[in-house]
Amino acid sequence: MRRRALLATPALLAAAPALAQPAWPDRPISVVVGFLPGGSVDIGTRLLIERMAPRLGPQARMIVENRPGAGGSVGAEFVARQNPDGHLLTMSSASSHATNPAALPETVRYDPVADFTHIAILGGGPLVVAVPGSSPHRSVAELAAAAKAARAPLLWGSSGSGGIGHLTGELFAHRAGFRGEYVPYRGGAAVLEAMKKAEIDFSFEVLASALPHLRDGSSRPLAVTSRARHPQLPEVPSLHEAGLEGFDIITWNVLQGPRGIPAPIVERLNRAAMEALADPELRRRLAAAGIDPAEPSSPESTRAFVAAEVEKFRSIVRETGLRLGRG
Questions:
Q1: How buried is residue 324: exposed, middle or buried, by Cβ count under 10 Å (0-12/13-18/19+)?
Q2: At the top level of CATH, which class does the domain 27-124+252-320 belong to?
């Protein structure tokens, strides 16, 4: 009996480190949002984690950490360099993980695909081509005609150089056959304030951010950038309908973490996100905020989605000849 006990000792000792490992999560999970509080990415993140956290365990907590700057790139770069233990994640955006890397390859210091663990797609939605409420332009055709006839370029804005609004607006002007003068702003709220004061002639903003101003009449929508009309603005045509055939751009948000998060943790996070997104009440609240909830996604399909979007925006940079941050 003593010999059997001695023989068992090495096995017990080998198992001890595994048994001693703390359960995950053993502290709050921070989700970095690369934008100011109150924007669409921030709102969508808070709605999701409210329902995700209970699905990770009775003591699990998830909190938002806002690290705004450079169209989300400041937060993304921070996350890419952190310990991949599953306690720090990010809600990335089309700007931080597609348009900025495509338009600013010399200044974005992370690989949007290789440097991250891809977990799940939250959702997204179109951008809106909008004019000030006082604008005489009532359609995309009228706006384009005015831009072509104007002695000076029309002024237009979005929330930051290299962001999704910027690249989408450049593609719009390129395909509509005119050149405007781009005015970058620090965030969607600043763009919409400029629209209210008629300081710019038109703008490209994410639907979720623009909705309150469209509803109060300070801005007027001319088109959405998705291929089809959007349920929140059923009377507003898409750019495809308005004559720019094939135009189809949406923004999106993806839950990610630093590269190298252990697979079991990634699977738990994905499962919790999918269960949360299946909740009809969460889907209703996301839709009301202008965020179309995504269909089910896996870590593998999420990674493939991000890679495809990066390439799409690189092709837009090539088509428009846009040059930023290259001296």
A1: middle
A2: alpha beta
Residue 200 has pLDDT above 90, yes or no: yes
Which residue's structure tokens are 């002007």? 173
- Is it true that the peptide bond before 28 is cis, omega within 30 degrees of 0? no
> Is 27-124+252-320's fold the same as 126-224's?
yes
At 246-305, the pLDDT tens digits run 999 999 999 999 999 999 999 999 999 999 999 999 999 999 888 999 999 999 999 999
Q: Exposed, middle or buried, 196 (CB in 10 Å: 0-12/13-18/19+)? A: middle
What is the reported pTM?
0.86
DSSP string, 47-105: HHHHHHGGGG-TT--EEEEE---GGGHHHHHHHHTS--SSSEEEEEEHIIIIIHHHH-T
Q: What angle do CA 304, 308, 314 make, to 5 degrees?
A: 150
CATH class in words for 126-224: alpha beta
Query: What single DSSP character describes residue 291?
Result: -
Q: How many angstroms separate the CA atoms of 46 and 177, rounded?
A: 40
20, 86, 111 from 56: Cα distances, Å: 20, 12, 29
**Distance separating alpha carbons of residues 76 and 278, to the nearest angstrom:** 27
Element (H, E) at 204: strand 202-206
CA distance 70 to 186: 9
At 301, is the secondary structure helix, strand, or coil?
helix
Instruction: Please provide residue 148's backbone torsions phi and psi, each rounded to the nearest 5 degrees.
Output: -70, -35
110: exposed, middle or buried (C-beta count within 10 Å: 0-12, 13-18, 19+)?
A: buried
Mean pLDDT of 176-193: 88
Q: Under a CB-based contact definition with an 8 Å cutoff, are residues 75 and 34 in contact?
A: yes
| Distance (Å, whole) CA 96 – CA 164 | 9
Domain boundaries, the chain: 27-124+252-320, 126-224
Query: Residue 156, SS3?
Result: strand
Look up tokens 């663990």; give the residue: 117
